Amino acid sequence: MKTAIGRTHITDDMGNDVVTVSPSDTEYSALLAVAEAAEQEHRAHCLLLTETCPLCQALAELDEIRQEQVQPHRN
């Protein structure tokens, strides 16, 4: 078994998933693709300041979270 992003996968001896992908997984992947496309489109075309645009504020928070995930954690 292996765990990725909070999900446990049943695997064979080679580490390959042996359970088929559920429709909810494909729906989630599609929703992520839509969200990423919307993010790129908004960042490219928004004419408001970050302070006045709620979506830009949310994207700025997302950037901070992504930056924290990239940095190595120290004990």
Strand content of the residues, in percent?
A: 5-15%
What structural class results from the helix and strand content? mainly alpha
The helix content, as a percent range, equals 40-55%
**Mean pLDDT across every amino acid position:** 79
The overall number of domains is 1
Q: How many alpha or pi helices?
A: 2
List the uncertain runs: none
Broad shape: elongated
Describe the fold and architecture.
This protein is mainly α. The protein starts with a strand and ends in a 5-residue tail after the last helix. Helix content is about 55%, strand content about 10%. It has one domain.
Fill in the keyword field for this structure.
mainly alpha; elongated; two-stranded antiparallel ribbon; 2 helices; 8% strand
Brief overview:
With 75 residues, this protein is mostly helical. The chain is 53% helix and 8% strand. Strands 1-2 form a two-stranded antiparallel sheet.
